[in-house]
Model the fold of this input.
Amino acid sequence: MTASVAPIRAGAPFPERELFGPGPSKVSSRVLQATARPTLGHMDPDFIDLMDETRELLRYAFQTENDLTFPLSAPGSAGMEACLVNLLEPGDTAVICRNGVFGARMTEIARRAGATVANVDAPWGAPVSPEAVDEALSSNPGARLLAFVHAETSTGVRSDARALAEIARRHGVFTVADAVTSLGGVPLHVDEWGLDIVYSGSQKCLSAPPGLSPITVSPRVLDAVKNRRTPVQSWFLDFSFLTNYWSGGGKRAYHHTAPVNAIYGLHESLLMLREEGLESAWARHRDSHEALVSGLAELGLSPLVDVAHRLPQLTVVPVPDDIDDAAFRAALLREHQLEIGAGLGEFAGKVWRIGLMGYGAKRSSVNLILKAIGDLLVRCRAEDVGASTV
Amino acid sequence: MTASVAPIRAGAPFPERELFGPGPSKVSSRVLQATARPTLGHMDPDFIDLMDETRELLRYAFQTENDLTFPLSAPGSAGMEACLVNLLEPGDTAVICRNGVFGARMTEIARRAGATVANVDAPWGAPVSPEAVDEALSSNPGARLLAFVHAETSTGVRSDARALAEIARRHGVFTVADAVTSLGGVPLHVDEWGLDIVYSGSQKCLSAPPGLSPITVSPRVLDAVKNRRTPVQSWFLDFSFLTNYWSGGGKRAYHHTAPVNAIYGLHESLLMLREEGLESAWARHRDSHEALVSGLAELGLSPLVDVAHRLPQLTVVPVPDDIDDAAFRAALLREHQLEIGAGLGEFAGKVWRIGLMGYGAKRSSVNLILKAIGDLLVRCRAEDVGASTV
Done:
């Protein structure tokens, strides 16, 4: 009848990190304080007003008029699953682009929904090829959708979402775009580009705590969901229920209990984005990135991704040959309270992912990062130390 | 390029409610402040320690030694779906008890997973009948699982989880128990009773913000999941991945980005539960309930559920014939900042659901509720007013 755990956190000072990895990004105290507001009931009229505001602010962030624009009550990976399983039925074909971890994840999810997947592969570090997509859609004339990652978090690459959406439209298939890392950091115009479903995450360029997945869904997709032959395999992710819950006007239908405090945080971060303006936020990410790249060059580090396809909010650099990746990052965290990201998948152990996202995308962050990495590189090399002693 | 929304929350005082509905329950300022701690990276060693502590504290709350005991990064409804879709494969039979909204929801989820469902129905307001379950399991000898709701949030009824688990074990089927409203409020002994999977919610008797679903899974179930003929239909909810993410020891495998700040809040609420002790928490819920029932009797209101099956944390009373349900609750909220729950499903418009859950289960809450309801009943009757003018 007793818990054997020692409450190591109780009373101890809570650690505070400089978050410059691939997300979560550093959350401002304004947003943190918003998450600590008193919890309202999920059907409280004041909370429903706040839901409506959140939807409107998300429409601005996504640059869309889509009615069904809302934060899914789960992380970006669940957002990815929601977008795929609402459109796909057993036997459907999905054309899925794969140039990093997240295209591979989409593939796995689509297969579990009973779809046949035709992959369009590009090398890690390169963008999706519009020509290859055009070809794949020509070879799969009955395909239901084209899915791709706008900003690949595993490689730091931006693909041309506008061009890909145009090709998909020409072939008459729906587009599903992963904008987890792009939303708020680089231009994204959902309506103008004709993207059908776009999902994102709260913890990247929006700088809200992780846990929510903003999603926007075109009316065309909702019609298609209504006309499915089979029910959506997931009750929790079914867009029909989510429409009644989020867009029900005065007559919201209970579906689940919304994560009230998490939505406070996202709402506050979206207010900050609107106050700044999207173009300013995009410019700020670009400027911070350029300053980072200049400074890294002085340290002998250069971005892996070609300048034409590089994400400003996530700079991927090869780990220097004479440096032990894991030991170096551990020392950065321990000595400088500074987090940068490790490589994932094919890039594990080979690259660092340095995120300047949302609230963290500013000159002072760049200085902090350059000073910490620079000092530690010098020390490692001077001491000629290996993994065990850094 | 502009958002048309007016930020009504910005600068305005944020409303604070007394939450005495069916959840979310009132969150203590200690827990709210915990959610506002600086966000850590989801792979930060300090956050991983906090994940381990959270798992250990949840084992105490569930009274289990199950290794896979963790908070799912989504609300209770997703927890329900996780538990069902990991066990069920197309063609399986599930025996599902239905005595309120949530048994019906389980049925729908199981069907979408391709299962055939045999329902064991009991009237709304009554518990699940062990005899009927025994009979249903006898008539469905190859059934994969028995699912039931321990504490029905739509009716305020407690079913005999121990007896039901014993019957299931005798028939060699897995038990899935919904403990969304029971965990922390009434005795629940997962290991002693032999429950195979139990899921709950953060926002009921634990009084953390809504958004997480604590789950515990027996090793027997994990073996069964490993031996499935088909992959689990949901990538996000697959227990094999979640085991690698939550129980991977020193070698956690990235699956999704955990909702870091939400977990801070849950962790703090679980610490509070352990400091108080489970038995004390259960006794506090019982005492508060008894005080509430005595006070309600003086107002002419009596619980709908038989005393033997009544949940202390959720008291359901019929709305008096001369009172307009919606107008009365709206006036309580507007004039007293006090939320009680409406009826759901069959009970819509007919009952009030008064929750004394977690942090809210105390004598001062009882006094607040009785004074507010008592005063408003007197005024309504004195003024002989209808819905439109209350």
